[in-house]
């Protein structure tokens, strides 16, 4: 009888006294990650490449060496484990988008991969091909004290294949003509973003043949830049671009039909035909220019 009491007490200890059951506890989920290197040919800047995993909606940017690492979470759950193939996209705005295929079975990487190894490492680095080069030509000082307009040019050069892009124009009359517009300014003092709202009349598509060159000439009046959100409780004059250092970026959206919309929306761009401050979040390989406004 004493032996039975001891066995009963021991069993109760395991059932009640233990907060973690070593016999029935689920195994921890295996951490799944992907990594690799992405390079862009004919690069002129240190712009990062946006890496996006379709279906799983996870993303990151490459570092200065072109390396990326993404943890793939929530592949295993109580309602079922993820299985299927997903595309891993590599996006740099003025480069041809590329992707690799990743195979997942029951929440784990499949042993038979084509672009990655069984541990999630890219077998070969991804090399992006340039579609369009963009070069700004602008004075680094804009003196508005004499009511001078801001004038500058943007040279666009296509490469080995035709390319199309969207941009804004200002519609002028007598005679009727279209003048390039759609310019963003970002303050280096407080990150406020402005654009030439009154000049951005409509958006148009431009088609370039391969190895073609186009130059756009811009002209903005001294008080032509407005904030994206106007505060009705503050005078408009106080909300205009203030003196100081600003980053300048013309709105040029390169059209690629095979880019999932979620890539753009992950960067805050929900409608490519609407100029927005989020355009600054889209990685683009060009030498950005800073102007000092006085």
Description:
The chain has a six-stranded mixed sheet, with no helix packed on it. A five-stranded antiparallel sheet has the order 3-2-5-6-7, with no helix packed on it. Strands 12, 13, 16 and 20 form a four-stranded antiparallel sheet that branches. The protein has two domains: 32-128, Sandwich (Immunoglobulin-like), CATH 2.60.40.4130; 132-293, Immunoglobulin-like (Sandwich). The longest helix is centred in the first third of the chain and has 16 residues, at 2-17. Helices cover 9% and strands 39% of the residues. It is elongated, with a radius of gyration of 27 Å. The chain is built from three helices and 21 strands. The relative contact order is 0.17. It has helices spanning 2-17, 236-239, 261-266; strands spanning 32-40, 50-53, 58-61, 67-72, 84-91, 98-105, 108-109, 126-128, 132-137, 141-142, 150-158, 163-172, 177-181, 183-187, 193-195, 202-208, 213-220, 226-227, 244-250, 252-254, 289-293.
CATH level 3 topology of the largest domain? Immunoglobulin-like
Q: Give me the side-by-side strand order of the main sheet.
A: 10-21-19-14-15-18
pLDDT averaged residue by residue? 88
The protein's oligomeric status is: single chain
How large is the count of helical segments? 3
Largest sheet: 6 strands, mixed
What overall form do the CA principal axes indicate?
A: elongated
Instruction: Tell me the structural class.
Output: mainly beta
Instruction: Write down the Rg.
Output: 27 Å
For the record, the CATH architecture of the largest domain stands as Sandwich
Helix content: under 10%
Q: Tell me the name of the CATH class of the largest domain.
A: Mainly Beta
* Beta-strand content estimate: 35-45%
Question: Which stretches are poorly predicted, pLDDT < 50 over at least 5 residues?
Answer: 1-29
Task: Write out the CATH superfamily name of the largest domain.
Answer: Immunoglobulins
Written as H for each helix and E for each strand, in order along the chain, the element string is: HEEEEEEEEEEEEEEEEEEHEEHE
Number of structurally distinct domains: 2
User: What is the terminal-to-terminal distance?
Assistant: 97 Å
Number of strands: 21
């Amino acid at each position: 009888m004493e032996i039975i009491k001891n066995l009963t007490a021991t069993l109760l200890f395991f059932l009640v006294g233990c907060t973690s059951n070593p016999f029935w506890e689920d195994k921890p989920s295996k951490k799944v990650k992907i990594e690799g290197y992405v390079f862009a040919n004919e690069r002129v800047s240190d712009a990062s490449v946006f890496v996006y995993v379709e279906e799983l909606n996870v993303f990151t940017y490459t570092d200065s060496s072109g390396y990326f690492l993404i943890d793939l979470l929530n592949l295993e759950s109580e309602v079922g484990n993820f299985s299927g193939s997903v595309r891993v996209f590599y996006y740099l705005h003025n480069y041809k988008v590329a992707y690799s295929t990743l195979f997942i079975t029951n929440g784990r990487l499949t042993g038979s991969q084509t672009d990655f190894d069984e541990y999630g490492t890219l077998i070969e680095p991804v090399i992006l091909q340039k579609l369009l080069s963009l070069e700004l030509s602008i004075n680094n000082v804009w003196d508005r004290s004499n009511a001078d307009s801001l004038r500058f040019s943007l040279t666009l050069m296509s490469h080995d294949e035709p390319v199309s892009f969207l941009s804004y124009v200002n519609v002028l009359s007598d005679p009727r003509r279209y003048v390039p517009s759609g310019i963003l300014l970002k303050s280096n003092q407080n990150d406020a973003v402005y654009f030439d709202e009154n000049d951005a009349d409509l958006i148009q598509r431009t088609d370039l043949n391969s190895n073609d060159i186009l130059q756009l000439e811009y002209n903005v009046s001294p008080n032509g830049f407005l904030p994206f959100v106007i505060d009705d409780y503050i005078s408009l004059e106080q909300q205009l671009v203030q003196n100081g250092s600003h980053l300048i970026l013309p709105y040029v959206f390169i059209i690629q039909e095979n880019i999932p919309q979620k890539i753009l929306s992950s960067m805050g761009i929900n409608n490519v035909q609407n100029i927005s401050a989020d355009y600054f979040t889209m990685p683009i390989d060009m030498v950005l220019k800073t102007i000092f406004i006085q």
